[in-house]
Amino acid sequence: MFGHIIHAYADRFASDGPRQDSPLLEVFSRLGPPGQSRDDMQLFRETFLLFSLNLLDAMLTIIWVRNGVATEGNGLMARLLDSGDFTFLTAKIVMGTITAFVLLRWGNRRVARYGLTLALAVYISLMGIHVVTGLSAFGFISQTAMRDLELLTSSILTMVT
User: Which residues contact 12 (CB under 8 A, 6 or more apart)?
Assistant: First the structure.
């Protein structure tokens, strides 16, 4: 599972001649699912990025909601957030972990790559919303500009749907 990472670092720091596989590398390369080689772990960075964005989204959501800057848009997650910060954060981490496991296990399938690309696009857009929320909360964006942005967004969504 982690063999490709160890190979990358071993290649980077190797100074003389071809690299010999160490017993430790053999152990890590066997940690993956049966029949999956370390070359099949091609979505590790993207999956890690998605998990990190999910965690950042959870923390920023807690900050914005608890300070009265924003509300949680997802009804189910809003109920979890009403139950408590720890409950909300735990649910987000569990969902992110399950998603990461599925993507790492079946990442060689085309649908997994497309799904990961779509999820990353959504989360990167969501980070843009968090940035705008933060700028508005700290007074860098006026209420008039926020209303104009809301009208523009509503217009675009109306045309799309």
Answer: none
How big is the CA angle at 34 (ends 32 and 36), to the nearest 5 degrees? 65
Residue 39 pLDDT grade (very low, low, confident, very high; cuts 50, 70, 90): very low
Measure the CA angle with vertex 61, ends 136 and 112; round to 5°.
Answer: 115
Whether the per-residue pLDDT at 95 is higher than 60: the answer is yes
Closest among 6, 143, 125, 130 to 59, alpha carbons compared: 130
Q: What is the largest CA-CA distance in the chain?
A: 65
Cα–Cα dist 133/141, whole Å: 9
Cα gap 148→143, rounded to integer Å: 9
pTM for this predicted structure: 0.69
Give DSSP secondary structure letters for 70-125.
---SSHHHHHHHHH-HHHHHHHHHHHHHHHHHHHHHSTTSHHHHHHHHHHHHHHHH
Q: CA triplet 97, 51, 107: central angle to 5 degrees?
A: 75
Give the residue carrying structure tokens 């999910």: 54
